[in-house]
Amino acid sequence: MTIIILAVANWPAITHNPFLYDYLFGQYGVTSILNQSNSLLDPAIFEQAYTYYIALALIAVLTGIAVYIVLQSFSRGVEDAREALSEIEEAGSSRRSVEAEIGVRWAVRTASIVLWAVYLVFFTNALLPFCLLTTRQGTAALNQANGWAFELLGFMLLWLGLHQHVIFARLTLLRPRIFGGGRAINNVLYGN
After folding, report:
1. Is 35 in the same domain as 59?
2. I want to staple 142 with a disulfide (CB 3.0 to 4.6 A). Which of 3, 23, 38, 147 is the partner?
3. pLDDT digits (tens, 9 = 90+) for 112-159
4. Does residue 39 sit within a domain?
């Protein structure tokens, strides 16, 4: 995902770079070969009327997946709350300790959501533009060592920044993993 973000954001700098221009647009470049071929990747395909319907179907599928993920997360959150309640009550705890435990869990989730929102502002206003700027500077000097260093710096910082979003998602869900967390805990505890 990091590579895709950097490639899309730096596309104008990449296409005007003399180091990559011949590879992309030269006589034997990628676009020349695509323009000369009559394959499935022919650019004329995107001029057809049915591509609108394909794009519309793709957007509908992605919207459906997003709605499914939101509803599944809500359902899973309610189920996890019921499990937490039953686990705490089975431990023989009093009602006050059960309420305190649930309060602590909600406080951690609320704090992680607030911190995630603060980090999101920092990420979009400072870190992402810095990463894009360093990779653009690296693309301008791609045939030099400092150009590669800028590319690596931008890539690594963006990768770490996106990984921080995953960490906040894990904190919000109170799981060691976003998907399959229960399985990971069982493997550690019971050796399955």
Report:
1. no
2. 147
3. 999 999 999 999 999 988 988 888 888 878 788 888 899 899 999 999
4. yes
